[in-house]
Amino acid sequence: MGKVRLPPETVRLIKELAVKHFGPSVRVYLFGSRTDPNKRGGDIDLLFELPSLPEDWFRRKIKFLVDLEDHIGEQKVDLLVKSEGSDDPWYRIAKETGIEL
């Protein structure tokens, strides 16, 4: 894993909660300003990549965000939930510039 501007405990928690809400096949990427050691602050930009999206993916996303906030407090978190190979431009940016946690 490359250098990220998140405490190790937060990284561990994000990965644990991703698996809790999306299952063991989820891949978690951090992208955006938190991957740049020269920046300060910023929201937490995450991509959850799955082999295929479950029908209830949006409900799971909300539950993950609530669960994360319960543990780390109120912070701005942007979460993309996409299936592998998505043609969404944000997915491509997150995959190309992100760091897998």
Explain what this protein looks like in three dimensions.
Helix 1 (8-22) packs antiparallel against helix 2 (57-72). The chain has one domain (8-100): Beta Polymerase, domain 2, CATH 3.30.460.10. The protein has helices at 8-22, 57-72, 89-97; strands at residues 27-31, 44-50, 77-83, 99-100. The chain is 40% helix and 21% strand. Strands 3-2-1-4 form a four-stranded mixed beta sheet, with helices on both faces. The model has no long low-confidence stretch (mean pLDDT 92). The chain is of the alpha+beta class. The longest helix is centred in the middle third of the chain and has 16 residues, at 57-72.
Outline:
The chain has 101 residues and is α+β, with helices and mostly antiparallel strands.
Short key terms for the protein model shown above:
4 strands; globular; 101 residues; Beta Polymerase, domain 2; 4-stranded mixed β-sheet; alpha+beta; single chain
List the helices and strands and how they pair.
Blueprint (H helix, E strand, L loop, with lengths): L7 H15 L4 E5 L12 E7 L6 H16 L4 E7 L5 H9 L1 E2 L1
Parallel strand pairs: 2-3
Antiparallel strand pairs: 1-2, 1-4
